[in-house]
Amino acid sequence: MNATRVVIVGGGFAAVQFAKNLRRKLPASACEILLFNRENHLVFHPLLADVAGASINADAAAAPLRQMLPGVECRTERVQRIDLRSSEIEFDEGTGELSRLHYDHVVIACGAETNLGIIPGMTDHAFGFKVMRDALDLRQHIVHQMEHAEAASNSDQRRWHLSFIIVGAGFSGVELAGEVNELVRSSSRFYRNFRKEDVVVTVVHSQAQVLPEVASSLREFARKKMEKAGITIMLNTRAVAATHEGVELDSGQMLKGGTIACTIGTAPSPTIQALDVPKEHGRIRTTADMRIEGQTNAWAIGDCAYIVNAFDNKPSPTTAQFAERQGRQAALNLVRVLKDQPTQPFRFKALGQLCSIGGYQAVAEMFGMRVSGFLAWILWRGVYLFKLPTWSRRIKVALDWFWDLLFPRDLSFLNTDATQYLNRAYFRPGDFVHRQGEVARVFSVIEDGEVEILQATEESPEAKIVAVLGKGDFFGEGALLGSRPHETSVRARTPVRLRQVGSALFSETAANFPPFRELLSNAVVRRSGDLWRRLSLGKSILDREPLASLLEPLPVEILHKNSTLVDAISMLRKTPSGELLILDEKQHLWGTLDRNDLFQIVARVAVTPTHEREAMIQRKLSEFVPGNSLSVELNDSAAVASATMLVRGIAWLPVVQSKDVPRPVGTIRGERIANRVVQTIAHTEANHARAAS
Ligand SMILES: Cc1cc2nc3c(=O)[nH]c(=O)nc-3n(C[C@H](O)[C@H](O)[C@H](O)COP(=O)(O)OP(=O)(O)OC[C@H]3O[C@@H](n4cnc5c(N)ncnc54)[C@H](O)[C@@H]3O)c2cc1C
């Protein structure tokens, strides 16, 4: 008889316990076990904070799966799809082609993924805290911040570098805050320019108490200990945005800091999202024995599963302790199924809880006893040491820990050149991206939103808006190419998301990619050719000219985001200017469309197969036109509108009431602005001539 094939998707706490127990119960001749995990190791999440805090090396928190699981075939591959109907999984073998594998039973133990996208700007400015890479990157960054603080010449800058913000006070937030606090404060003695009192570690937590996962008796205790160690805990406080400066709170306060670590926000893994099975808050619903509801040969365990604990009839919490127990009991249930015996519901009485709070301190509640401080910390470390796979590894890690007790933490870091990066940045309305006179460090492309360009001159020292840039525009190239400070400031007009390229990467790309170089030189020529900056007379005329005096009325025909391509074609036919505005549900400006845009869309439609064309022209306009069209506000000057058009190389722009109420009030055309300047100059000269005669 063929051996039963069991495929496990995931290699975390639940999966490892499942594989271990199944192997123990069934010999290889009766059961083939394959475990697919994205990494070749199990991540000991409770020790990640120690990696970030430099108190242990990364290998102490990562246990190689194949050493832990003799007799189990461990594959370091990502499962792309699970087909419950055909009992197959699909995975990439590294060749780029997807392979399929049949199973008799599948066990889904994918855990959960980080989702920083729940708060604007977090993806761009905060560290996640879930995988080993997060912990290592954060550790590098913290040490880097200390080096910056040492070099900072002004106290505000130093304080910013020494301010660390942790969002969330669950297990991971509390453990991380404790470790960061300990690392920075205990290392301050090696620096001359700051003391440990200068270090600010703040935990922002939306609930009334820290550690919602642990017993209430331990929460208060942990909070007091952390505050005593110098950590500020802000309870009942929500982070609403993250920027380069720090975190904006729901009270409107801006908490400044150069390091943000976000420990909240999880989402189901894409493999789970794609599964068409009953779910609860994204987790897979199971029956009491942990099989997926409606399935006979598919099981779900760990953080990705919604399993009711028969002990108290409550959903199991997402903790390592529960994941391990579920893994163990699901394996026993599978053995029972294979032997045609009745399965048992998941039932587990939590043994207690352990949480490290930094500074060689922990809180623990085990077998009804409450322990805290160093003793609890030893207990906590002992438990994790015991879980490591081999004796050689246990001894190595124990020596590392012992070493850390005797000697200071390692402050070396690999110096990655900050000018080489490519990243994202988020700015709130009013935030400066850079200021005039600052050294140019990045080239920025606007992914979303609008920025205004401001310039102060000797004649008018107060900075004035000179142009507006929108989605798809870029800036910073002039200063980088000319190796000079920025000649203008850039400020966010709406919430803005940028893609930024460090100076070295930018220069290398500009030097080696001719199309990019050409795009940049065209932009530089267009921008330096800003007519009004050269013709100061023209500029002073336009600075004084209110936009309202040059406004053209709104086109009679207005399109809606939901209008179809056919509607657009027929409206453009009836519009002599060939320019149309597109509004959203609130009648706010959403986009623009002119004959040129339409021509390009029609060209796209023309290359689709004939039978698809009819359906395509009935599709919504929003599928063809990028929203977020650039506009100017009614109280901008004509000079701003003119420069915006010149920078973009466009002939007209919509004008909206204001950035807060982007209701269109008319349009402005470059030609009309130019006429006004010429007329005013001619009029002024005629007046001079009359006066002279
Ligand atoms: C920083 C941190 C600290 C924590 N501290 C504690 C603590 O002190 N005590 C406690 O009890 N709990 C703690 N937890 C929670 C605990 O770690 C989780 O509850 C536990 O890891 C869940 O185990 P799991 O097996 O379900 O998932 P995980 O351990 O997350 O493992 C899931 C695995 O599946 C893999 N995977 C996902 N999708 C695929 C795919 N398609 N193909 C292949 N592989 C895939 C992932 O790469 C991952 O290795 C902490 C969590 C974090 C993040």
Overview of the structural elements:
The protein is 35% helix and 25% strand. Helix 1 (13-25) runs parallel beside helix 10 and helix 5 (132-151) runs antiparallel to helix 6. With 693 residues, the chain is an alpha/beta fold. It contains 22 helices and 41 strands. The strands form 13 sheets. It has a five-stranded parallel beta sheet with strand order 5-2-1-9-21, with helices on one face. Strands 13-12-11-17 form a four-stranded parallel beta sheet. The model has no long low-confidence stretch (mean pLDDT 88). Bound molecules: flavin-adenine dinucleotide (FAD). The site of flavin-adenine dinucleotide (FAD) has 35 residues, from helix 1, helix 7 and helix 10.
Summarize the structure.
With 693 residues, this protein is of the alpha/beta class. Strand 25 (352-358) and strand 26 (361-366) form a beta hairpin. The model has no long low-confidence stretch (mean pLDDT 88).
Give the tags.
693 residues, 35% helix, binds flavin-adenine dinucleotide, five-stranded parallel sheet, four-stranded parallel sheet, 22 helices, 41 strands, alpha/beta
The tally of helices reads 22
- Each distinct ligand: flavin-adenine dinucleotide
Give me the side-by-side strand order of the main sheet: 5-2-1-9-21
Q: What is the gyration radius calculated from CA atoms?
A: 31 Å
Number of strands: 41
